[in-house]
Model the fold of this input.
Amino acid sequence: MKIKLISVCLLTVSVLFSSWLWAAVELNEDVPEVYIVKKGDTLWGISGMYLAEPWLWPELWDVNPQIDNPHLIYPGDELHLVWVDGQPRLRLNRGRDIKLTPNMRVSPLDLAIPVIALDEIGAFLRHHRILGPEEINNSAYVVAGAQGHLISAPGDRIFGRGPFPDGERAYGVFRAGDVYRDPITDEVLGYQAQDIGSAQLLSSNHDEVVELEITRVTEEVRVTDRLLPLEDKILDATFHPRAPEAEIVDGFMIAVDGGVSQIGAWDIVVLNRGEREGLKVGHVLAIYQSGLVVHDEIRGDNVALPDVRAGLGMVFEVFEKASYAIVLKTNRPLKVMDKVKNP
Done:
């Protein structure tokens, strides 16, 4: 009797576990059994073709022992949809030897297809940052323009004062912009570092006051603008979308690049959650709109409807208290102060 009971329990657990796996990798209808990766594909696009929940892409991969990293796929690779123990899996057939020696590849990493089109965020990252109050207050700044000029343009010389790190010759010129605050606690999360231009250091880093030449501007450089070393942003084409490990509570889209009133697919937004809440690059978040408050004609009072899922976004740059995310999908117009939650 005990053996039968144990068998039934094991069978129940097995069925439940299989059901969980199936729910985790639910396929779309009419997916191709064989797909050849093309130039211009993105991992997100391929994921969306196969899966109802594209960020669960890793769950679909079968073990490919001949491939060092199954998340590195290239144009010409063949993806084969197979079934293993009743579960859908993708196997990769490269169809060519990708190794010449243990340390060399025929296909360089920069040819791997990206998660999303990197040009959507590359230019943005080069000229956008979120700075904490201490970062702004302790950074170098423009103390004067050449010949006492209050504003400067490309080719002009300026003088900077403050910390200039050894070996750094290229600097971005920034101006403190919008203040980002948490909508629940009113805590200052950071300041928008508004891109003003770039400058090249001409004198020694160790001088109290240094001389720089302006090389690029988006508007005139002013006295008190901040000088920060230019960050060489290398965008990783191979990270894959995934759900956050921790629960994201009271998350909101608190700002959008460009100051528009409505937010759509491929817009870049600021989130009020960052490293301290466990967000990482590649985390996918569902976007929700607050449910409407309606009048209940039966009970005669007002009642709030449940929040409505309205889109999906992915975090691509994380700061201590805030993050940048790109909206990957929408099914209705979004706006600032829409919520973000675990998908």
Summary: The chain has three domains: 16-113, 126-229, 251-341. The first helix runs from residue 2 to 24. The chain has a mean pLDDT of 82. Residues 16-113 form one domain.
